Amino acid sequence: MPSTALIVIDMLNTYEHEDAEALVPSVREALPGITALLEQARASDSPVVYVNDNFGEWRSHHGEILDAALAGRHRSLVEPVAPDENSLFVVKARHSIFFETPLAYLLGQLKAKRLVLCGQVTEQCVLYSALDAHIRHFDVVVPDDAVAHIDADLAAAALRMMSRNMSTDVCTVKDVEFDG
Questions:
Q1: Per-residue b/e over 152-180, b at no fewer than 16 CB within 10 Å?
Q2: Is 137 helix (H, G, I), strand (E, B) or coil?
Q3: What proportions of the chain, in percent to the nearest 5, are helix, strand and coil?
């Protein structure tokens, strides 16, 4: 069983929020890296786990979140990264992928030891998720060309913090290997 899991953070997005216009150009830049990681992980049979905000819709499930994102004004940012039939899905309500979610349990069941984080937003959800993964003793990888930001300066600082303070392997997509 592969020990590396790909975690796709908040990519099923309607882009109907306050920071959307600042975020969208960066998502467009990160999209090729994210799709490349998805292809690599799927080809190696490594687990792909989508962890996505529920946007306050407590009655929603992953299908509804995906449908809403595909019906949004930036469908072209969602379609290339849509979950396939083998993808796993965890709904979150706060910044960290671990906060009050069953993700740690799921990763234990998968026997994952190394997490590759991609998605959005670098200086928010990716940063807090990397910290929570680090304190749970996961090896963390963040390809800087597969994460999107709202504020470039804060994103650069967040990546430096992940590398320096959390032992995160900040690299590029071409440097990521899956062990499936």
A1: eeebeebbebbbeebebebbebeebebee
A2: coil
A3: 45, 20, 35
If phi over 0 gives left and psi between -120 and 50 gives alpha, with beta otherwise, what is residue 10? left
What b-and-e string marks burial along 20-44, b requiring 16 or more CB atoms within 10 Å of the CB? Answer: beebbebbeebbebbebbbebbbee
Tokens standing for 156? 């650069």
Structure tokens at 60: 């929603």
Give the pairing type, strands 114-120 and 139-143: parallel
Predicted confidence (pLDDT) at residue 169 exceeds the cutoff of 70: yes
Residues in the chain: 180
pLDDT in tens, 141-167: 999 999 999 999 999 999 999 999 999
